[in-house]
Amino acid sequence: MVLPPKTIHSVGEDLTATKTPFAEAVEVDTFDGKLHIEWDPTASVTPIGQLPFFIEFLKLGNRFEPWIKDCPLVYTSHNAPTKTDVLGTLLLSVLSGHTRYAHITTLMGDTVNSILLGMNKIVSDDSARRALKKIDEVEGVQWLQQHLYSSYGPLLNTPWILDVDVTVKPLYGHQQGAKLGYNPHKPGRPSHTYHTYMIANLRLVLNVEVQAGDQAQSAHSLPGLMSILNKLPLDQRPTFVRGDCDWGSERVMSELEEIDQHYLFKLKKSKNVKALINKHHCSGEWTYFKEGWEAKTDQLQLQSWEKERRVVIVRRRVSNNNIMGLELGSGKQQKELAFVDGPEDMKLYEYSVLITSLAGELVTVVQHYRDRADCENVFDEIKNQWGWGGFTTHDLKSCQFISRIIALVYNWWSLFVRLAHPEKHYEAITSRPLLLSSVGRLTKTGRQQKMIITSSHSETKRVQAIYRRMTTFFSDLKSAAPQLTPQACWEQILAKAMTAFSVVTRPEQIKILPLPT
After folding, report:
1. In the prediction, which pLDDT does 512 show?
2. Which CATH number goes with the domain that contains 239?
3. Are strands 240-242 and 161-170 parallel, antiparallel or unpaired?
4. Rounded distance, CA 428 to CA 113, Å?
5. Considering the domain boundaries, does residue 319 fall inside one?
């Protein structure tokens, strides 16, 4: 008997092993019984199925295409993505509520909205970061500032107020400009500062500048403010500029007075300011405002000022029913709490002093400053719902670009929501689920494209009614579009969106189209 030869090499794994296809059904147990699940990678679906209405808004308003065309991004490689792919990806990412570049990967499977935006593909997060680094900083800032202005420019023909403020963005790496500065929520944490200029009440961003964390003072915001004011025509300048106590300095007020720009700021409680409060405390003749607030006006000249200016003293009596406590001790010392107790006839007052060049009524000036609290809501919305708290890169230039891109998309979406709901402002946490999020399936039959939208929102019928009214308005606008310039079409849209504010832009040139009920 002849035995077979012994094998020298060990037998490897079977190369013909079966593999489970990705689309094969899997079985899971649920409380309603067994469920068979399959994946369909070929279906054209999107989680933001109502985006086509916003795309039509951008197309009729001539917002998206000029933004792409004017971008100073230049590629030399034939394999590089187009500008439409890069900026369209960033637009979809910001609209989706992303806060990191890495979140862009969740859009890679969206083959619906990328096509409707004229894109070839969704680029990767690395491609988006590299694209921002390739743009020249000076040209990129001018490009974004130009399109920010074109989004709100027609609204400046009516009286408006300019709010200036700074917000802090904590950082957790080794980014350029990460410095220790004023950071009330995370003391000791390096940060960036976002110097922001806004249109009050409309909640639109005029411009934003990203600076190092130790540059949070008004002295670092003043050049940007003066640049905005000097570029605006005289008939489009704000009625007055409004800011907190950091802005009540001689340098700021003197520069604004040189260009005849009114202002309304708050003063720090310095020694001479406290002396002014002491002077008027018991003098009487206070003007009652509301809710226990009282006000008086006077003239004041501090040591660092070159002249006297009008001040408004505001006070409010603290209710005796409140329990007031004093905390003693700081740092790592043991803190002690002491309650403020006194006779029943003791009166406690809360004081603040405003500095202004306005000559209006006392009550009106006080109300104007109280309305400034709304700008804190804008910071909260853009930082927590639009990505200002994220999209962090090592270089400061990319942070400058993405902050302005977010502000531009925020302005576009805010105006779009105003068109849907003219009566009030809806934050993204409410407007996105209502007007954007839904499952959309794109089907093609011959030359016709059809989008089937499935929404799980409880107010689906209301959304359908809103979009039917909006598409009717767009249809009327498209019928008149051949007779109008692209800028005139945008002004038509703004005029309708700002109906609640009685904003009519250039009424001698534009006839506002009625929105059907």
Report:
1. 34
2. 3.90.350
3. parallel
4. 19
5. yes
Residue 125 C-beta-side C-alpha neighbours within 13 Å? 15
- Tell me if 467 is assigned to some domain: no
In a domain, 225, yes or no: yes
Kindly report which listed range (53-62, 128-137, 170-179, 332-341) carries the lowest average pLDDT score. 332-341
* Alpha-carbon torsion, ordered 354, 355, 356, 360, to 10 deg: 40
Question: How does pLDDT run across 80-136, given as a tens digit for each residue?
Answer: 999 999 999 999 999 999 999 999 999 988 889 999 999 999 999 999 999 999 999
Pairing verdict, β 263-266 and 240-242: parallel
How many angstroms separate the CA atoms of 192 and 210, rounded?
Answer: 7
Beta strands 161-170 and 33-37, pairing class = unpaired
Helix segments in 39-187, DSSP class H: 51-60, 64-69, 83-95, 113-116, 125-134, 137-152
Task: Report the distance separating Cα 281 and Cα 275, nearest Å.
Answer: 10
- pTM, 2 dp: 0.87
pLDDT at 419: 93
**What is the torsional sign of CA 172, 174, 176, 182?**
positive
- Which helix (H) or strand (E) element contains residue 369? helix 362-370
Asked if the structure places residue 273 within a domain, the reply is: yes
In total, how many domains does the chain have? 1
Neighbours of 345 (CB within 10 A): 6
Cβ atoms within 10 Å, residue 29 = 8
Nearest Cα residue to 391 out of 142, 182, 169: 169
Contacts for 1 with CB less than 8 Å, ≥ 6 apart: none
* Cβ proximity of 121 and 114 under 8 Å: yes
User: Which domain does 323 fall in, by range?
Assistant: 140-327+335-397
Report the 10 Å Cβ neighbour count for 432.
19
β-sheet with 287-288: strand ranges across: 204-212, 191-199, 161-170, 240-242, 263-266, 348-356, 309-318, 293-300, 287-288
Q: Identify the three-state secondary structure at position 248.
A: coil
